[in-house]
Amino acid sequence: MVLSGGMKMDPIIEDGFVRLTETIKEYNGRIDELDEAIRSDLAALLSRMVTLTTPLIGSLGQQFLQKTKKDGKGELYDTIHYDEKMIIIGRAEEPVTIRPDDMTRKVDKQFCVLTEKGAISELMFSDDGFIIDSYLNPLTADEAIDFYGPGVIYMLYRALHDYANLEEELIRSLEMTIAFIQGENK
User: Fold this and answer.
1) 1 - beta bridge partners?
2) Which tens digit of pLDDT belongs to each residue from 84-100?
3) Of 65, 122, 129, 174, which sits most exposed with the smallest number of CB within 10 A?
């Protein structure tokens, strides 16, 4: 190999440099393989977490807006919510441009949710200024990891952690209330 200025590279250095570039290429291929293995394990982990969480969604989830209308002042009326409760476990930084169910509706907000039936889904909201409606698009655990990243696992954990802390605080408050009531009745 000839360097700029006409100098020749030492054969030992050149052999080492070639080997270094080959090693980087090998590592890049191995990184892709390992990344794929980790992602598949993340999807399996998310699936197990969903199975364990599903029975709790009814008490910790919320009912989300399915469709509503807005008047001239921005007030909502004729509001319809989804029957089942859900928790948000991810949010798209850049929503897709159009909804899969209606190519004329642009997506303004897009979330990854877990429903009380145990389905991982995308909740896509559209707002044309008069009607706000949504589309619930089912996802596999692999798709959730691919589209929303591994943060969905953390968000699911965080939702349960925060809910457990609220339950603990509620129990302490109820115990204090009972102790106070029983103290007054004596």
Assistant:
1) none
2) 999 999 999 899 999 99
3) 129
User: How remote is the C-alpha of 56 from its chain's centroid?
Assistant: 18
Q: Is the pLDDT of residue 3 over 60?
A: no
pLDDT at 115: 96
One-character DSSP codes across the chain: -B-TTSPBPPHHHHHHHHHHHHHHHHHHHHHHHHHHHHHHHHHHHHHHHHHHHHHHHHHH-BPPEEEEEE-TTS-EEEEEE-SS-EEEEEE-SS--SB-SS-TTPBPSEEEEEEETTS-EEEEEEEE-SSEEEEEEEEE-HHHHHHHH-THHHHHHHHHHHHHHHHHHHHHHHHHHHHHHHHHHH-
Q: Residue 108: phi, psi to the nearest 5?
A: -95, -40
